[in-house]
Automatic annotation (TrEMBL):
This is Acyl-CoA dehydrogenase. Residues 119-208 form the Acyl-CoA oxidase/dehydrogenase middle domain. GO terms for cellular component: plasma membrane. Belongs to the acyl-CoA dehydrogenase family. SUPFAM superfamilies: Acyl-CoA dehydrogenase C-terminal domain-like, Acyl-CoA dehydrogenase NM domain-like. Residues 4-115 form the Acyl-CoA dehydrogenase/oxidase N-terminal domain. InterPro entries: Acyl-CoA_Oxase/DH_mid-dom, Acyl-CoA_Oxase/DH_mid-dom_sf, AcylCo_DH-like_C, AcylCo_DH/oxidase_C, AcylCoA_DH/ox_N, AcylCoA_DH/ox_N_sf, AcylCoA_DH/oxidase_NM_dom_sf. Residues 227-370 form the Acyl-CoA dehydrogenase/oxidase C-terminal domain. It comes from Nocardia panacis. The keyword Ligase does not apply. GO terms for molecular function: acyl-CoA dehydrogenase activity; flavin adenine dinucleotide binding. Its cofactor is FAD. The keyword Magnesium does not apply. Pfam families: Acyl-CoA_dh_1, Acyl-CoA_dh_M, Acyl-CoA_dh_N.
């Protein structure tokens, strides 16, 4: 991917932020299972919580390829920060595109500034990959809707002020805005995760909670074809690039370690089996970067193959990141599993990339299906 001068400048700014504000804190956030308020507000102040928004809505109108490079830089520092910006983008863009003008004006600038965090509530305890068959229901009442059901695994649900909740209305899918303070709406923290530990996950209980009519964002067959698919596609692009950033961090750490750690009187880098690991890591990182770059270019061009290419990029990059992070731990030996080094965190975070925004198995099915459709004569 050949960068323009402008992109080079942008990436230098993202990288400086990651080096100064994210990397020094990331292991601490992981241990505390929380991001700091300061980092959320600092991202908002930089207009980087949803940098793809237009300037007047609180973003920096970042183009698609540069947003990819941004996600990679966030992922190089901390998977949970990268997850935060992805989810804020998914929620803010959905409200801007499908919400009423009043909803957009009320929520989008506040989400972009970090004053109100948004959460995306699709998954349920009994329905993950099979999200279309969710059991949460909405019924019409005078002046609005009553929602009943449970949601699970909401990133930043612990912190969120507003939730985009998927439910069934008149036996068709629908999306609603639910504000945190709504009566009969309960948010419970989920702790003790393997990875993305600072993503402040929560489960939600909607126990007949009543919301006003204007909080309906979308209803009907198109909810999944438009809202869910568009949001998940956006999140997938961010996840794919975040995995590239994570793998790059692991590769860089391994190169440094292999150059400086001596065993058998020579640096680790002189041992051929360590070089074999480094080679596999380099090849995986570069291949993933190329696939993400290709997806970005097609997305920017509005190409009809962009969604399929994004699926391929996310599938490949998330698996590559897990492999590279595992190899990085191996190169570091015992230090690799110590919390004094970041590679153990990256390995745990990498596993999650294969589960969120569609699992690797579901993506295998989707990529094959989309490719068969594309090549059908
Ligand atoms: C850290 C984290 C953050 C998350 N954040 C959010 C969020 O913000 N919002 C949200 O809505 N959700 C979120 N999720 C949930 C996530 O989207 C789901 O975990 C994911 O969709 C998979 O669903 P599941 O966990 O129920 O697994 P299941 O769907 O039960 O799948 C279990 C296993 O079976 C496989 N499988 C399922 N169906 C098939 C099939 N047809 N063929 C072959 N294999 C299959 C899966 O690939 C997986 O390996 C988050 C999850 C995590 C771990």
């Amino acid at each position: 991917m050949r960068l323009t001068d402008r992109q080079r400048e942008d990436v230098a700014a993202f990288a400086a932020f990651t080096d100064e504000r994210i990397i020094p804190e990331a292991n601490h956030w992981d241990a505390e299972q929380h991001l700091s308020d300061e980092i959320v507000l600092a991202l908002g102040k930089a207009r980087w919580l949803v940098p793809t928004l237009p300037v007047e809505a609180g973003g920096t109108a970042l183009d698609v390829p540069t947003y990819g490079l941004f996600s990679a830089e966030m992922g190089r520092g901390c998977g949970s920060v990268r997850n935060l910006v992805a989810v804020q983008g998914m929620v803010a863009h959905a409200i801007l595109k499908w919400g009423s003008r009043a909803q957009s004006e009320r929520w989008v600038p506040r989400i972009a500034a970090g004053e109100a965090v948004g959460a995306f509530a699709l998954t349920e305890p009994e329905n993950g990959s099979d999200a279309r068959n969710g059991r949460t229901t909405a019924e019409r009442i005078a002046g609005g809707y009553r929602l009943t059901g449970r949601k699970k695994w909401m990133s930043f649900g612990q912190r969120a002020a507003v939730f985009l909740v998927f439910a069934r209305l008149d036996d068709e899918p629908a999306v609603f805005l639910v504000e945190r303070e709504t009566p009969n709406f309960t948010v419970r923290p989920i702790g003790g995760l393997l990875g993305l530990r600072a993503s402040e996950l929560a489960e939600l209980e909607l126990n007949g909670c009543e919301i006003p009519a204007e909080n309906l964002i979308a209803h009907g067959r198109l909810v999944f074809d438009l809202v869910a698919t568009t949001s998940l596609d956006y999140g997938r692009y961010s996840t794919a690039w975040g995995a590239v950033g994570l793998a790059t961090a692991c590769l860089d750490a391994s190169l440094d370690y292999a150059r400086t750690r001596t065993q058998f009187e020579v640096p680790l880098a002189e041992h051929q089996l360590i070089r074999a690991l480094l080679t596999d890591m380099v090849a995986a990182v570069e291949a993933a970067r190329l696939l993400c770059g290709q997806a970005g270019e097609l997305r920017a061009a509005g190409h009809q193959d962009a969604v399929r290419q994004t699926l391929i990029a996310k599938y490949f990059a998330s698996r590559a990141a897990y492999q590279v992070a595992g190899d990085a731990v191996q190169v570091h030996g015992a230090n690799g599993v110590s919390s004094d080094y970041p590679v153990q965190r990256h390995l745990r975070d990498a596993k999650i990339q294969e589960i969120i925004e569609g699992t690797s198995e579901i993506q295998r099915l989707q990529i094959a299906e989309a490719t068969l459709q594309r090549t059908r004569v």
